[in-house]
Structure formats: structure tokens, C-alpha cells
Design brief:
Layout (H helix, E strand, L loop, with lengths): L5 E5 L4 H12 L4 E6 L11 H4 L9 E2 L2 H5 L4 E4 L3 H13 L3 E4 L6 H5 L2 H4 L3 E4 L5 H16 L5 E8 L9 H14 L3 H4 E3 L13 E7 L5 E9 L2 E9 L3 H13 L6 E3 L1 H5 L2
Parallel strand pairs: 1-2, 1-4, 2-3, 4-5, 5-6, 6-12, 7-9, 8-9
Antiparallel strand pairs: 7-10, 10-11
The protein binds 1,4-dihydronicotinamide adenine dinucleotide (NAI) and ligand LZUJQKHR.
1,4-dihydronicotinamide adenine dinucleotide binds next to helix 1.
GO molecular function, one term: 4-hydroxy-tetrahydrodipicolinate reductase
Subcellular location: Cytoplasm
Catalytic activity: (S)-2,3,4,5-tetrahydrodipicolinate + NAD(+) + H2O = (2S,4S)-4-hydroxy-2,3,4,5-tetrahydrodipicolinate + NADH + H(+); (S)-2,3,4,5-tetrahydrodipicolinate + NADP(+) + H2O = (2S,4S)-4-hydroxy-2,3,4,5-tetrahydrodipicolinate + NADPH + H(+)
Length: about 270
């Protein structure tokens, strides 16, 4: 019989949490062993399937992450930066693979994952979909092929509830463009233009964010020169693409030693 890793989903009631619960419980390659929510949340103590408005799944939502992680081979975590830092330490203690989809982490917060990654595999990406990770590779190639006559702008659109900007995906695309050009993104990023900004600086990479309605996630990388434009675009219409990628990462992580990985490693791109 093939071994099926046990998976805990954190942020179980969230937009991604619910999608992940469905994806893991429908999978024949893994099984759901835990669902974590923050203390005081109305779902704590309830069966997660029933809380989602469906049939019981035999998993009670808990606010005790370490107890849940101790039963699991992987934790899939799409929550907040503070919660993710707490979960990284606990997943490392439980020697469980930690798949992190949470965005909006600062450089200082990302650096704080390092001690946990000495004990368990951490797989982190601002976007877990195959399409976006392919777009990242294409962006790097196009940026490397074009000179600074082409202005690079990353434009993203998301639903009205999103709390961080630029999106994690936009930052991945910006990093890829900067890498293709052989520059550090921190040196050339233009984030949040407003007022008399002055003319666009040659070689800079701009970011713009749109927020509204129920947009799942749309990303354009624009290369604009005099007389022509190239646009690389990804449009997400269903959060299932992120959940499928996260589950793939949790399964792939079973064969890995401690360390930090991303979806390029998982997908072999
Ligand atoms: N990497 C990727 O492919 C994707 C990443 N995301 C990111 O995932 C994150 C979550 O997105 P959504 O699901 O839309 O947000 P959401 O707000 O719907 O869900 C977050 C959930 O985390 C829970 N939570 C917060 N603190 C917690 C704690 N200490 N313990 C347990 N649960 C806690 C909240 O109660 C909530 O249910 C965001 O950072 C978003 O940008 C979203 C989609 C795809
Ligand atoms: O918050 C979201 O919804 C999404 N967040 C990720 C991001 O910040 O790029 C991925 C996806 O675009 C949806």
C-alpha cells in the first residue's frame, strides 16, 4: 500500500484554507489530519467539513497548532506573516514539511524562517500555480533579451479583501525581471507612484496594484519601448490552482531534507 502523508491546513476558514481542505480531502495521495484556526474563532471545536457547510470530514478545527502538527507529515499554511512565523517554529519542532503560501512577509520576517529550515523542509512561494511559475521563467528570459529601451512595469489586480501590495506574485515577477537584467530589484523598484513623481527613470521596474470585487489574481509584465510593447499575462480564475500547487509541494517535500525550497524546485522548471 502506498504511504499517504497526513496534512494539516492552517487558516482553515479562510478563502485559501477552505479550498485547501477540499483539495486535500478529495486527494487520493494525501489525507487531512488537522485544521487550525486562530484562538477565539467560531469554527474552533467544530468538524471542519460541517463548518464549511458540507458533510463531516472527521477533523475537528483546533487552536492548538503543535498538537495538530505532531500528527502530520506536512502543514499547508496560507495565513498571515505573524502566524506563519509561529507555525514555522512549530512545524520544525514536529519535523513536518511546511508549505508557505502566505504573502506580505518583510525581508526581516523571511530571514526568521532560517532557524526552522535547519530542522525541516520549508517550501515557500508567493504563487503556487504552474502558470505563474512558468511566467516567472519567461519574464527572466524576456528581460535578459531586451535592453533598457524597454521599460518594465508589473501590474496586478486582486479582490477587495487582499491586505498586501504589491502581491507576492508581482514581487516574484519583479525579481525575475531584475535577475534577467542583472540588477538588484531593491535598487530599481518604483512602488506606489503618486503626485509629482518626475519622469520615469530608465532601467527602473514599476509596480501598480488594483483592488476590487472578487478578482482571484491577474498579473501583467509589460515591456514598453518606443513603437512597440510586449505583455506577458497570467489570469487566475479559480483558487484551486494554488491549492493543487500547494498539495504538490507538500508531497514533493516528503523526499527532501531540511532547507528552503520554492515552486521552481517542486515543478522542476
Ligand atoms: N502563494 C499562493 O499561491 C497564494 C497565496 N495567498 C496568500 O495566502 C494568504 C491568505 O489568503 P486568503 O485565504 O485569501 O486570506 P483569508 O483572510 O481568507 O484567510 C486567512 C486565514 O488565516 C487565519 N489566521 C490568521 N491568523 C491565524 C493564526 N494565528 N492561527 C490560525 N489561523 C490564523 C484567519 O482567521 C483566516 O481564516 C495571503 O497572504 C494571500 O496573499 C493566497 C492565494 C494564493
Ligand atoms: O491574496 C490573494 O488572493 C493572492 N495572493 C497571492 C499574491 O499575493 O500574489 C497569489 C494570488 O495572486 C492570490
Amino acid at each position: 500500500m502506498t504511504f499517504k502523508p497526513g496534512i494539516v491546513v492552517t487558516g482553515a476558514s479562510g478563502r485559501m484554507g477552505q479550498m485547501l481542505i477540499r483539495t486535500v480531502s478529495d486527494s487520493d495521495k494525501a489525507h487531512l489530519v488537522g485544521a487550525v484556526e486562530r484562538a477565539g474563532h467560531s469554527w474552533v471545536g467544530r468538524d471542519v467539513g460541517e463548518a464549511m457547510g458540507g458533510a463531516p470530514l472527521g477533523v475537528t478545527v483546533t487552536d492548538q497548532p503543535l498538537e495538530a502538527f505532531a500528527q502530520a507529515q506536512a502543514v499547508i499554511d496560507f495565513t498571515t506573516p505573524d502566524a506563519t512565523l509561529e507555525f514555522a517554529a512549530l512545524a520544525a519542532q514536529a519535523r513536518a514539511v511546511h508549505v508557505i503560501g502566505t504573502t506580505g512577509m518583510t525581508e526581516a520576517q523571511i530571514a526568521r524562517l532560517e532557524p526552522a529550515a535547519r530542522h525541516a523542509a520549508i517550501i515557500r512561494a508567493g504563487n503556487m500555480s504552474l502558470g505563474v511559475n512558468l511566467l516567472v521563467q519567461l519574464t527572466k528570459r524576456v528581460a535578459a533579451a531586451l535592453d533598457e529601451d524597454f521599460d518594465i512595469e508589473v501590474i496586478e489586480a486582486h479582490h477587495r479583501h487582499k491586505v498586501d501590495a504589491p502581491s507576492g506574485t508581482a514581487l516574484m515577477l519583479g525579481e525575475a525581471a531584475a535577475e534577467g537584467r542583472g540588477v538588484a530589484l531593491s535598487e530599481v523598484a518604483d512602488r506606489g507612484r503618486d503626485g509629482i513623481t518626475g519622469a520615469r527613470e530608465r532601467g527602473h521596474i514599476g509596480f501598480s496594484a488594483i483592488r476590487g470585487g472578487d478578482i482571484v489574481g491577474e498579473h501583467d509584465v509589460l515591456f514598453a519601448a518606443d513603437g512597440e510593447r510586449i505583455v506577458l499575462r497570467h489570469v487566475a480564475t479559480d483558487r484551486a490552482i494554488f491549492a493543487r500547487g500547494a498539495l504538490k509541494a507538500a508531497l514533493w517535500g516528503q523526499g527532501q531534507g531540511p532547507g528552503q525550497y520554492d515552486m521552481v524546485d517542486v515543478l522542476g522548471l
